[in-house]
Amino acid sequence: MSHEWILCHQQQRIRTLTLNRPEVRNALSNDCLEQLVQQLEQADADTGTGAIVITGSSRYFAAGADLRELQQQTVATAMTDRRPQLWQRLHNISKPLIAAVNGYALGAGCELVLACDLVICGESARFGLPEITLGLMPGAGGTQRLIRSVGKALANQMILTGEAINAQKAQQAGLVSEVCIDALTLERAEQIAQRISEFSPLALRAAKAALKTAYETSLSQGLLAERQQFVALAGTADRQEGITAFLEKRKPTFKGF
């Protein structure tokens, strides 16, 4: 692909991916989403990467799907679109994903935020699913993930009115974990990513998998899955190292096995 729509930066064990389509406010076309997923899969496979940060520009994180692509779509092309597979691949990333959001995260941009594990945003951030205003509805997890994140009342209001919420409301509702001043959003997200990336990759993968299970199953199934992940870690050198280091009052050195 001739366009480089995803900028990639590695610092220590953190991979930062920046959406870079300024001419369309970082709209997530299929090709752009594919580039993002490919970069995420590369980071997921890289033993030198412990956590991944996804960010946009200072004025917009991502302003939705590419409307010119949607304009051409028929029922037949929508049914055979590769987009659902791309979102599924994104969902399958096993390493922690942290969204650093300034400005607008709308439509597919908001759905990308919802697909991340942690969200840090600036005071300027706005989150919305305005698809209804275009005769559409969210189609990349918006209706399912938003309601699990912010609850029935707010999810219904956001999706049926198409109105965005601000950073403060997003934090109150549980969509984002921290709000900072805009200039520090990325720095704060990378700081959190840095802390996460120092832990055992095996423990992180197991914890993320268990947390995702909570979204998708009953409590009893979730508890069983959690226990299975917990038991699987018992045979790892990292777990031995973590406990030994704590007892010896030193910093652990995790190796990933």
UniProtKB/TrEMBL annotation:
Among SUPFAM superfamilies, the record links this protein to: ClpP/crotonase
**InterPro entries recorded for this chain?**
ClpP/crotonase-like_dom_sf, Enoyl-CoA_hyd/isom_CS, Enoyl-CoA_hydra/iso, Enoyl-CoA_hydra_C
- The residues that cross the membrane are none
Q: Which domain of life is it from?
A: Bacteria
Q: Which Gene3D superfamilies match?
A: 2-enoyl-CoA Hydratase, Chain A, domain 1 (3.90.226.10), Lyase 2-enoyl-coa Hydratase, Chain A, domain 2 (1.10.12.10)
Task: Name one matching Pfam family.
Answer: ECH_1
Record NCBIfam families: PRK09674.1
Protein name stated in the entry = Enoyl-CoA hydratase-isomerase, phenylacetic acid degradation (Strain W)
